[in-house]
What we know:
By secondary structure, this protein is of the alpha/beta class. It has a six-stranded antiparallel β-sheet with strand order 2-3-1-9-8-11. It has a six-stranded antiparallel β-sheet with strand order 4-5-6-7-12-13, with helices on one face. Strands 16-15-14-17-18 form a five-stranded parallel β-sheet, sandwiched between helices. A hairpin with a 2-residue loop joins β2 (29-35) and β3 (38-44). The longest helix is centred in the C-terminal third of the chain and has 30 residues, at 441-470.
Amino acid sequence: MCAIAGMVAIPFIGTDKMLSTMARRGPDSNGCFQEGPCCLLHSRLAIIDPAGGAQPMTFEWGNEKYTISYNGELYNTEEIRSRLLALGHCFKGRSDTEVLLHAYAQWGRDVLQVLNGIFAFAVWEHHRKRLFLARDRIGVKPLFYTLHKDGILFASEMKTILAYPTMEARLDAQGVAELLLLGPGRMPGSGVFRGILELEPGCCGVFESGKWQWERYWKLKDRTHEESFEETAEHIRMLLTDAIGRQMVSDVPIGCFLSGGLDSSLISSVCASEMAKRGARLPTFSLDYENNRKFFVPGKFQPNTDSDYIPIMENALKVIPHRTVLTPENLVDNLQDATIARDLPGMADVDFSLLAFCKEIRSVVKVALSGECADEIFGGYPWFRDPEVRARSGFPWAQNTDMRSSFLSQDMRSEMDPESFIGDVYSSTINACDILPGTLPQERRMKEMVNLNHRWFMQTLLDRKDRMSMYCGLEVRVPFCDWRIAEYMYSVPWSYKDHNGYEKGLLRHAMRGILPDEILWRKKSPYPKTHDPRYEEIVSALLREILSDPTAPIFQIVDRYALEQLLTAEFTWPWYGQLMKKPQTIAYMLQLDFWLRHYHVSIV
């Protein structure tokens, strides 16, 4: 993986500073291309063909010359290479960058229909003076841009855009609404900072003659599902095992996240089996918290801890286990770095812990596979299965608009109608769903839920995984995000997905024989968090420090009284998702204040 950036039709200034912001994503090397109105930047984390594949990379084909800056990994590189060889292409190395560049030269925009992978890339067409930008279908790899002066400026991360000398970090009323009414989620296509946009998943665009035009090349589309339940299960087993196998390709050591839950255990099992064929053992990485056995209390969203299940998988797979145990102090120590990594306030200690965890993993391997997004695609979250929550309008992972809006400062409250804001962005997603005519009401609702999760909640988790891992120079691959799985599963009936009343019942049935039964049929438990009361004590003390500072920037947008009440509040619903309760909400506010300070954000 890597970091990319570039500019067209604006002065080439501040490139060294921009490259410095990219170094964590690409610590192995960097490069700069400048010609005419275009400048492309690249920082590399070398995974395939470390000796080759330097970027930006240039290639001439036909009557055109192309230069690429690419962040990602293609999982069907060899199939594409074979097709291109048959068309007369010759290759100097083994990198997927070279294959992608040749493929774009051969097929242009249509190359996007050929790719299986995670990517964000820019191609400059020298003679046409045209910039092409594209992002993978699911949105695993990020790509932000701004139309600045008469040109365009783009990058993997917003910190790189903000490093350009004439860019400013500004926040308007819509940005405030995203932070407090939607955060840590954000609107599709939004960077929260005023003027910074994100190229959405499954989209591409062209900047030419001073004009930017983008389009969607892929979305979830409904189809008639004609396979039986058993045929569907077999189809899923084939797709998932194929996706995992493809994503094991690497010239550097790889490992797996292993929580003891269904998703990471499935990936670890397939990887361990493949490694055993090579005469090797799989490194796995597991996370726990100090004193969690002492303080854990089962709840609706977290019925049990992972610590009893991780050893079962380690023993069954004969892996090389690595354990990380975090303290409340470890979490708070990573609060600021996690905010910088994401460029925004994030999922509080869910981010902090992942960042600390990724640092430990990176000391052992450079690539790891993880189980993100199975719940969005297979319907595993509680809100898929709770009829009361499912029937409500609004985002099911944030049923708390009244509580959230109470944090708006008086000035900000006068600028917006929270209920209308949430209703509008929710309705726009529902109205954009592709659902076959005549679909029965329950089936229609479940497809709406999949779209809501795909475009909103899943993007928050992918942001988290990409930023926390790449901040440590660790490439994380997510096999459940293979677009073939998402596309196929969208049309599968809910009755199949909910087989025998189990969350992800279809997935469990499909993967029988791969896991021990106590793991295969274990009730879902989300990403682990600390239950140690010391964590709440620490973040509460830090919030009191902010409350004692009348100049704290957070008071420009957040009501002081609401912050004071937060210290003694009781939560009916989590702030976001399943895990962000009172301590995590306090931590989110700490992130918000730090973010306003660190990025010197001005309110407009």
